[in-house]
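Postdoc handover notes: sequence design on the structure in folder B. Input tokens:
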């Protein structure tokens, strides 16, 4: 009998990648994917612990699943609820204590053991023992070796994890605790996976890592390569038209990577480079290891290499000790840089991180005011960036159908979503086409094909 699994991903793209790997692994032992949890035999919540809201959402979802499980029980079905990802890693046993309906908890580094873990759960259930199993070890290398060949079919734009974990210990962040220290996969393994993705139809690959530009490895001749070197290698892969990477730390933006932005056509002109704050005092207590001036100089260098690069960032407002003048410095930096888009958050104390117990915690109302003021500027910059695209011609990698009839959606080189209405969706999906931008909205652009899809070579 085929069983069904529903996997829900929270948070970052790394979790999306991990979820697709879990799906691949489970397919091998007979599980089919279920779009909703309603009829699933197994539900996996692949969780995020980065901010409090993200972790609390998991518990409210478990509450809903408990009701569904009860309903299924009445109809003679048994649903297993598993919690994976960073909340699992951070809270472990605590999850079972708080939500006893959960029968399996496993961290981001142990999901390759899923088939065995599920077997243990099943055995325990059969013998009427409590079936709560917690596996939160850190065998990263073992995981990647195990998973290399198990990816499900990719879409036109695929993720590829090249690096995991972080040793930077920013004082607000749980990542070094939930994902462990920095670990880079080997160049050989990455190239193999990238070639496999391209051979199966991926035209774009986003290289993933919590600290992706800390990637380092040895090539065949035992030369040490950084991310720039890796990208130069991958750019030669047949069928691969676009390369992106995320997320980068300003401290690891090496000259060779910056140069690659000006030299490698496949490397897209978009960079997510979180700065978090524009105040040197706050950057110091955040343990970021760079000043606002360092960041500005870095951006100048990057723009020299690739003048049209679209910049994106993360910001935290209301970090402990943040005074009004510190926040003003953040606004100054934003005005100076002019971002294409950005993410901004109220500081959320995470248990076990140094800043959670630091003096000078900021009241919620002040955080909310600062967030609104920052977002107003960031939104205006995003609008202006979107508006500046109107009238331009650019390539779009079409990835999926849109909500409206005949509409297809893709991304341009700058990561902006582009919507096009065409009668020829079939010839566009999965390939790059040239589009003229006709209009800009707050979150996406509208355009038309410059030539009918068939008249454009399937780039
Ligand atoms: N509170 C608020 N935002 C946070 N981030 C990380 N930890 C916290 C926290 N404790 C934000 C940072 C990071 C992004 C992924 O999430 O801006 O770059
Ligand atoms: Fe967290 Fe800082 Fe590491 Fe980014 S660099 S994952 S914010 S500790």
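Designed sequence:
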């Amino acid at each position: 009998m085929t069983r069904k699994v529903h996997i829900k991903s929270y948070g970052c793209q790394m979790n999306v990648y991990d979820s697709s790997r879990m799906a691949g692994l489970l397919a091998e032992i007979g599980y089919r994917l279920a779009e909703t949890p309603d009829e699933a035999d197994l539900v996996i919540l692949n969780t995020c612990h980065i901010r409090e809201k993200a972790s609390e959402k998991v518990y409210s979802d478990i509450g809903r699943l408990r009701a569904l499980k009860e309903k299924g029980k009445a109809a003679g079905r048994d649903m297993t609820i598993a919690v994976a990802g960073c909340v699992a890693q951070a809270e472990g046993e605590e999850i079972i204590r708080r939500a006893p309906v959960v029968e399996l908890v496993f961290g981001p580094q142990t999901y390759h053991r899923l088939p065995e873990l599920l077997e243990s759960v099943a055995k325990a259930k059969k013998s009427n023992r409590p079936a709560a199993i917690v596996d939160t070890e850190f065998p990263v290398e073992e995981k990647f070796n195990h998973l290399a060949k198990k990816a499900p079919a990719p879409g036109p734009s695929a993720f590829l994890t090249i690096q995991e974990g972080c040793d930077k210990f920013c004082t607000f962040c749980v990542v070094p605790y939930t994902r462990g220290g920095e670990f880079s996969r080997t160049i050989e393994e990455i190239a193999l996976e990238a070639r496999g993705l391209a051979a199966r139809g991926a035209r774009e690959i986003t290289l993933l890592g919590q600290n992706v530009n800390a990637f380092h490895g040895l090539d065949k001749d035992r030369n040490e390569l950084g991310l720039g070197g890796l990208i130069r290698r991958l750019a030669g892969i047949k069928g691969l038209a676009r390369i992106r990477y995320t997320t980068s730390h300003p401290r690891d933006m090496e000259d060779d990577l910056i140069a690659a932005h000006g030299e490698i056509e496949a490397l897209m002109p978009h960079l997510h480079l979180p700065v978090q704050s524009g105040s040197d005092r706050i950057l110091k207590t955040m343990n970021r290891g760079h000043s606002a001036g360092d960041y500005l100089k870095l951006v100048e260098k990057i723009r020299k290499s690739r003048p049209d690069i679209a910049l994106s960032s993360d910001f935290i407002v209301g970090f402990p000790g943040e005074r009004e003048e510190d926040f003003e410095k953040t606004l100054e930096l934003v005005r100076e840089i002019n971002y294409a888009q950005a993410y901004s958050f109220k500081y959320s104390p995470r248990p076990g991180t140094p800043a959670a117990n630091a003096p000078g915690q900021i009241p919620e109302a002040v955080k909310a005011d600062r967030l609104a003021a920052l977002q107003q500027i960031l939104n205006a910059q995003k609008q202006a960036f979107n508006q500046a695209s109107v009238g331009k011609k650019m390539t779009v990698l079409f990835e999926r159908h849109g909500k409206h009839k005949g509409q297809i959606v893709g991304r341009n080189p700058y990561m902006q979503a582009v919507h096009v209405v065409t009668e020829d969706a079939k010839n566009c999906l999965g390939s790059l086409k040239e589009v003229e931008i006709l209009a800009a909205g707050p979150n996406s652009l509208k355009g038309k094909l410059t030539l009918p899809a068939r008249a454009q070579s399937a780039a």
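Context for whoever picks this up: Residues 50-51, 172-173, 274, 276, 314, 316, 345, 347-348, 350 surround 5'-deoxyadenosine (ligand 1) (CB under 6 Å). Don't rerun without checking with the PI first.
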